[in-house]
Amino acid sequence: MIPRPDIEDVKAIGYYLGKIILSLSATMVVPLLLGILLGEFSPAMDFMVGIEASLILGLFLTKICFTENDLNWMQGMIVVSLSWVVAMVLAAIPLYLSGHWLSFMDACFDTMSGLTTTGLALVQDMDHLSYSHNLWRHLIMFIGGQGIVIVAVSLFVKGFSGALKMYVGEARDEKILPNVIHGSRFIWLVSVVFLVLGTIALGVTGIVNGLKPFNAFFHGACIFMTAFDTGGFAPQSQSVLYYHSLAYEMITVIIIVLGALNFKLHYHVWNGNFKEMVKNIESRTFFVSILITFSITAVGLHQTGIYPQALVLFRKGFYQLISGHAGTGFQTIYAQQFLSDWNNLALAGMICAMALGGAACSTTGAIKMIRVGIIYKALRQDIKRIILPERVVIVQKFHHIRERFLNDKMVRAALMITLAYLALYAAGAIIGMLCGFSFLESLFESTSAAANVGLSCGITQAGMPAALKVTYMMQMWAGRLEFMSVLTLAGFIVAAVRGK
Amino acid sequence: MPGSKKKVFFLIFVLGALIFYKSAYAQVVSSADLIRRAKEYDGKSVVYQGEVIGDKMSRGKFVWINVHDGDNALGVWASEELAGNIRVTGAYKHRGDIIRVSGIFNRSCQKHGGDLDIHAQAIDKVSDGIKVKEKISVVKARLVLILAGLSGLIWILIRLKQR
């Protein structure tokens, strides 16, 4: 028998959801101020509508559902999964009002893509988008990359123990510091320090490359936010190709790699423990994985003969690969070129890289390096067990911040999530094929959406079937939250309908 | 036979007009076509037309401009002299100059790190860019006021109840 959720469950969920919505409305003040400052009055009004709508809903929920009870695990998970859906709708209001999206659903697609740091976009005439709307697109990626709840927990909500439940619900199963709020603030500290450094580096490079000074720093800030949060939105329709600059590409690669590393690893490196970088299972797996997937892609590109010079092949191949592997989605080629100029082998390398992702407790999506590393170690342990005499006790260790012994529970958890991701990639690919696309392009786009990458081979556009838009939105959402909180929400709905 | 002579002249005139028409206008290739059939166009002379968007990026004696034809923006590599006529570039408050570029199309330019680009040989300005006047929607303004009143009312009610 499934117990039906009671009124206290609904009140707790509603109250904390309201708090998160109020936090979101506060973040919309940033593009509003920029709009006023630059004399973009129509966009400023779009943000005023967005702020007011969020305020009304947030105030209403915190008032109607007021409770002094803390969240339990189930409630915390549901708050997280719902907050991403509500944030998607509210964040889409100013975008839709701009007139650059053909429907509200398209605007929601872009905000879900932004919040989940995916990078697939349906925006129209992006090159004439206002600065304030463009800033908002990049800011939601920054907020989503840190985690919507992290924003609320670290900046707007006074300490409460339910923070831990929501923190875990946002697919951060590792605590950087014993106190979640301190951990969240550390994530912000790292991000803001890198934001300043990254914006300066990209801004100066932009000026050297011929951008106007204001544009150079505006683009620098936007590109940093989406590179560090492995998102992939860019201020211009051509993505990073717009800059035609090797220096710009190199800087973004550095930022992307920084964003793909575990924040816990950042913490240790910040405290002078540089050896952790070399010893850590995630950084090692990441390195090996890049090497293997790039080799596959490079061989494929060599076969096509499109990039006869090795340096050019490396520049194009490696950039798309690292962008895909880290789940960013910046492109220096046109979406259609993946299908017209790259061969199946090169695409296979790309799809594998996208499916694997970066480190856990980072801003990347997908299966993640810690799980790949654990599965590899488990495989090695099993092979040793077969080869070595039965009396030999086989102990498998790995290094992640400290030395750890591999146990069955870890392997089971890693395999479960890996299987769930593979199923998600396959489900999206099947729906893509049902909509009339070929196997490879369907798999490419589906993996890109579910792994929160954002590279596109051309399927994602405003004219694609609505069913596919909904599929990709669901994939982005489930992929970013790593299933648990989404499944808890599904269970909650079932319990509310069928429970006694 | 003056009648048949006239017919021959007329036929030659029509054919000539057709050939002239083809060479003058049909060569304008769309970005979608250039990307889709990049292999066919690679290294060939093409004519491409569109709006200059973003910044005109100076690189020594050359500039990079990005030209959008409604589907995609393509990078155009041109000498400063050729691009000197470009005054307005497209952004939120501007519609950029519409230009017609004649140049060599590269599917993967070895000089520019494999970029798909056009190396301009001639640039003609089709029309001047303009400043776009921002329109404030009355409906939007009303919505702002109504929602402001509503959120203010809720806030006041909450504050009153707290007392």
How many helix segments of chain B? 5
Q: What is the CATH architecture descriptor of the largest domain in chain B?
A: Beta Barrel
Number of strands of chain A: 2
**Which residues of chain B form runs of ≥5 with pLDDT under 50?**
20-26
Mean pLDDT of chain A: 90
Q: Roughly what is the average pLDDT of chain B, rounded to an integer?
A: 88
Unreliable stretches covering 5 or more consecutive residues of chain A: none
In percent, how much strand structure appears in the residues of chain B?
35-45%
Contiguous helical run count of chain A? 22
How are strands sequenced across the largest beta sheet of chain B? 1-2-3-6-5
CATH homology superfamily of the largest domain in chain B: Nucleic acid-binding proteins
What is the chain-wise order of helices and strands of chain A? HHHHHHHHHHHHHHHHHHEEHHHH
Shape of chain A: globular
Structural class of chain B: alpha+beta
Written description of the protein model:
The complex is a heterodimer of chains A (500) and B (163). Chain A contains 22 helices and 2 strands. Chain A has helices spanning 7-27, 29-37, 41-64, 73-97, 104-115, 131-146, 148-156, 162-169, 180-208, 213-228, 246-260, 263-270, 275-279, 281-304, 310-325, 337-340, 344-356, 369-387, 408-434, 439-450, 466-481, 484-498, and strands at 397-400, 402-405. The N and C termini of chain A lie close together (7 Å). The mean pLDDT of chain A is 90. With 163 residues, chain B is of the alpha+beta class. Chain B has 2 domains: 28-131, OB fold (Dihydrolipoamide Acetyltransferase, E2P); 134-163. The longest helix of chain B has 25 residues, at 2-26. The chains are: A mainly alpha (500), B alpha+beta (163). Chains A and B meet through helix 3 and helix 15 of A and strand 1, strand 2, strand 6 and helix 5 of B.
